[in-house]
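Lay summary. Proteins are chains of building blocks that fold into shapes, and those shapes determine what they do. In this project we predict the shape from the chain. Here is one chain we studied, written as its sequence of building blocks.
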Amino acid sequence: MNTIRWILAAPLLLLGAWVILYHWRLVAMFIRVRFFGRQNKWESSVPLVGPVCVCLSALVAPAPELLRYSWLSFLIDPASYTLAASLPFLFRELVSPKKKST
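And here is the predicted shape, written in a compact code that computers can read:
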């Protein structure tokens, strides 16, 4: 049974790690464009896919140590910070009354 759980957890863990590394690649591309002026094709990122995959793999894996430290993936992923910084502005857009254009 443990082997099946590891077989299910390993792809999720690898996918989550790959997405988090991809987000760090986007940070490096931003720094290169900002400071060195090199223009590249800019790619979008989905903020919580990597950490959620890591947490799901920790739930499926038979090792309880993984579950204990799975929250660290939210701290490592730079896209989580982007989402956390934009939440007040998203909340303001949801709460503020809409003005009608005439």
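What the prediction tells us: DSSP finds five helices and no strands in the chain.
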